[in-house]
Amino acid sequence: MEISAETERIAVYWFTPEGDRYQHATLDVLPTEGGGVSTLGGHDYAEAPPAEDRRMNHIRPFCEDCFNEYLRLDRGQPSWKR
Fold this sequence. Notes:
Layout (H helix, E strand, L loop, with lengths): L12 E3 L8 E3 L8 E4 L6 E4 L15 H9 L10
Antiparallel strand pairs: 1-2, 3-4
């Protein structure tokens, strides 16, 4: 688990696998080139696409399991896209 030096909060990364309409969350640092990561919602592994922006996108639907686990984090705070 990564703690952001800037905010001292748990770093949660959001991604949307190719062909999936839902955002998923992970505590793993997303691979720059994309690749498999474990999800916060307890799925096995999901393929994260290569992407620059890792923050939550409030206009895309969330995976219910990942979002519920995100809400249970002690220090999880949303970082909305601007």
